[in-house]
Amino acid sequence: MRALRSSLAAITGFALLTFASSALAQVDLSGNWRPIDSPDQLNQAEGPAPVSYVGIPLNQQGRQMAATADPSAEQEELYRQCVTWQVNYFVEGPFNIQISPVGDPLDSNDVQAWTLSGTPDRQREVIWVNGHPQPPPTALHTYAGFASGHWDGDTLSVHITHLKDNWLLRNDAPESNQATVDMFLNREADLLTMLFIVHDPVYLGAPYPRARTFRLVAGSPTYSIPSANDCMPAEVIEGLSDGYHAARYLPGKNPDLHYMGRYNIAPDVALGATQEIYPAFQKVLDKQYTIPQGYCQADCCAAEGLRGTQCPGSAPAGEGPRAASGPARAGSRQKGGQ
Amino acid sequence: MSNPPAGTLLATLTLLAASCAWGQAPGAAADAAAMSARDSAPVDMTGYFVSIITQDWLYRMVVPQRGQYAGIPITLRARQFADAWNRSADEAAGKQCEAYGAAAIMRIPTHLHISWQDDETLKVQTDAGMQVRLLLFKPTAGQMRAPPSWQGISVAQWMPYLEGPGFVGAAPRRGVRAHAGWLQVSTTDMLAGLLRKNGVPYSAQTHMSENWVLNGEQQQAQWLTVTTTLNDPEYLQVPYVLNSIFQRQADAAQWDPAPCSLSH
């Protein structure tokens, strides 16, 4: 009997070692992550320009949706008061991300899921890494969707389904509820690089990848995490319509269709297209693009708040930047305080 | 039937577990050290890739206007340089490739052809500007004494993933797992060049570190993300971090060599 107990202890020890190694195989992603790179700086400050969808592989339907969007009138659509961004917006917004493990109640070392939260304008994203079964296609779609992940070496590979209709950017680049998102999280020391790839059979003609790097910082995000009670979509905003109008222009009536002309970008190019994200499109641009003359006048420097990126000094006499900001943008909307 | 001695069983199981779970890493590392860089590669990065321009499109697909420096933490000196930069003069001087140096080339819209030049050198060719980067895993003294060049001297090392179920009982194997490890590259000795084709400079003192990570299980849906950190004491106030995304291509069908240009 004593020998049997010893054998059991040995087997238990073996099992512990094995499972421990499995748990250790997960890279520790937990912490407060601050974005440190600055792709598409304009997207994070004032928001992207209206009808500026360059670099988005929109298909014809996506272009039509984009061309008629009126982001400045979004508050006329009451339901949008409570819309949060979905997960791929982590690479667009200015906020830190709080990543936390969710342990098994009986064994906190056995990570069952990771959560991405800490931003006021997104739902908590739960990434199941325990083989949680995929919900059926008819299951409820949410702004967070359903995220399942697995470790490939030290990369957390995630697939997200069951998303709601949403937007890729603040200028109402469309994203449908048929979209899925692949996400890859790679940590190297105190840097975390996130690669998101949006697949949308409704509005995109090709996968839409975006990447961003974050640095691990002390403390926690100070933003409150939204809950179901944070938003009360009952109030019609004074001065706007009755709250039930669509924020849309009729085809061809969007006054911002030529907004990108200030960059010498033709309206047809500004609407985005599948071929625009590939190098070969430069040959198309060669036939129509010329470098804008004069000195940059608007959106020339990095946004305030990003350390060290303010344009210092002065420009050459007579052609220097006059102001930090350009003309008011129809597309700069404030969602969830952003 | 007699039970096996408990102590023996415990010791055996413990040894077995230890060798599987943790003992493999040093062993595998030693094996990897003995192998060439080509044979110890934890991922297969060779092949053709195309850059996907979904970020900073306005600064990459077209030449931005003079004074458009958004997103780059430039110093006052850098801005003065860029404001005074003369495209025509540099074109006349044959310096078109100053915008295709190592610090900028991964942001240029291009195709990549990655191949092994030899067992210790990964060659990265671009069709845009027809540049060649050599990633040296075991650089020789002669290679390290090379004069400054657009692509500089790049020293590379694999960062294999050695722990976890995926590699229990096996050394890292080339091409077996999609992304069980990544490539780390450190580059110096570059000629001074341009980060943007509107004159934003980087200096010859720039040090560049890169992480090359391959994601995606299937060949046709593999993504190469290169995270670059530039440190330039002369022209950058803080390290400039940026990501470049590439998608694997099946073949060289889209390969389209073109000379360096400062105008498009």
What can you tell me about this protein's structure?
The complex is a heterodimer of chains A (338) and B (264). With 338 residues, chain A is of the alpha+beta class. Helices cover 13% and strands 22% of the residues of chain A. Chain B has 264 residues and is of the alpha+beta class. In chain B, 20% of the residues lie in helices and 27% in strands. Chain B contains 7 helices and 11 strands. Chain B has a 9-stranded mixed barrel with strand order 1-2-3-4-5-6-9-10-11. In chain B, a hairpin with a 5-residue loop joins strand 3 and strand 4. Chain B starts with 5 loop residues before the first helix and ends in a 15-residue tail after the last strand. At the A-B interface, helix 1, strand 9, strand 10, strand 11 and helix 5 of A face helix 1, helix 4, strand 9, strand 10 and strand 11 of B.
Structure class of chain A: alpha+beta
Secondary structural class of chain B? alpha+beta
For the largest interface, the chains and their residue counts are: A-B, 86 and 83 residues
Task: Give the strand order of the largest sheet of chain A, numbering strands 1, 2, ... along the chain.
Answer: 1-2-3-4-5-6-9-10-11
Within the largest sheet of chain B, what's the order of strands? 1-2-3-4-5-6-9-10-11
> H/E element string of chain B?
HHEHHHHEEEHEEEEEEE
Helix content of chain B: 10-25%
Characteristic terms for this protein:
heterodimer; A: 338 residues; alpha+beta; nine-stranded mixed beta barrel; 11 strands; globular; disordered C terminus; B: 264 residues; nine-stranded mixed barrel; two-stranded antiparallel sheet; 27% strand
